[in-house]
Amino acid sequence: MSAKRNQASGGHVIPAQDRQLRASFEVDLALCANALRRIRAHCAENHAAIGRDRLLEGLLQIDDLLTGAICVALNGEDG
Fold first, then answer.
1. Domain map (residue ranges) of the chain
2. Using CA atoms, how far apart are residues 61 and 48, in angstroms rounded to an integer?
3. Cα 49 to the chain's mean position, in Å?
């Protein structure tokens, strides 16, 4: 979207450097999300040895904290 259209629609123009940082952050976030998925899958497969419920509860808390932090970082608001 062009800068004029973006401003006219109520948005704001994001400088190129900020766009690059955001893109890098989104890549890091995707890698983090994939790692969490792999951990959850591993825990589900090995639940007897790990204490699955306790570990999954901890992972969900981490996921919630990351999601909240990401929303604040990207949007400036809690979500």
1. 15-75
2. 21
3. 29
Chain centre to alpha carbon of residue 66: 6
Per-residue tens of pLDDT for the chain, all 79 residues? 444 444 444 555 667 777 777 777 787 778 778 777 887 777 777 666 667 677 777 778 778 777 777 777 777 654 4
| Phi, psi for 77 (deg, rounded to 5) | -145, 155
Rounded CA-CA distance 26/42 in Å is 24
Half-sphere exposure of 22 (CA within 13 A, CB side): 11
Q: Tell which residue, 28, 65, 26, 63, has the closest CA to residue 43.
A: 63
Q: What gap in Å lies between CA 8 and CA 22, rounded to an integer?
A: 23
**In the 8-state DSSP scheme, what is residue 43?**
H
Residue 43: CB atoms within 10 A of its CB come to 19
Q: Which two tokens stand for residue 75?
A: 């949007």
